[in-house]
């Protein structure tokens, strides 16, 4: 069997609001609660982000989502409609631009707890097969 990542816990101070916002922006399903104390966001048939509320401090995490161009355009449209600032670089000002630096389209935005989301159409994490 191939190793697959099944779920990842996303620490948050606003569990339901954070899970709902990400799910609505990405156009995927989510639930207020499921198994245990989590608010899961179902990214695809095999990967779930489980939002878990905590009062404790936590580090800011970076999550990158690779999508096709049609999904990219739809998600960008939802982010723009919601008035969420975004940027073309991993760090820097919210320039409301997309990047084409790696042969596709990409951009970044932060959610209220500080976690950084990245959306791209072409992965630069590993060389092409």
From TrEMBL:
Gene source species: Janthinobacterium fluminis
Protein name: VOC family protein
InterPro entries: Glyas_Bleomycin-R_OHBP_Dase, VOC_core
Xref: CDD domains: ChaP_like (cd08351)
Domain of life: Bacteria
Domain VOC per the UniProt entry, residue ranges: 4-122
Family matches, as Gene3D superfamilies: 2,3-Dihydroxybiphenyl 1,2-Dioxygenase, domain 1
């Amino acid at each position: 069997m191939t190793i697959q990542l099944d779920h990842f816990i996303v620490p948050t101070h606003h569990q339901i609001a954070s899970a709902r916002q990400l799910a609505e922006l990405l156009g995927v399903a989510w639930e207020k609660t499921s198994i245990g104390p989590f608010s899961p966001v179902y990214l695809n048939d095999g990967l779930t982000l489980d939002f878990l509320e905590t009062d404790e401090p936590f580090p800011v995490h970076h999550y990158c989502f690779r999508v096709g161009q049609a999904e990219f355009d739809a998600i960008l449209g939802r982010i723009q409609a919601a008035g969420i600032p975004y940027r073309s670089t991993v760090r820097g000002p919210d320039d409301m631009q997309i990047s084409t630096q790696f042969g596709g389209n990409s951009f970044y935005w932060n959610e209220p707890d500080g976690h950084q989301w990245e959306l791209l159409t072409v992965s630069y994490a590993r060389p092409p097969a």
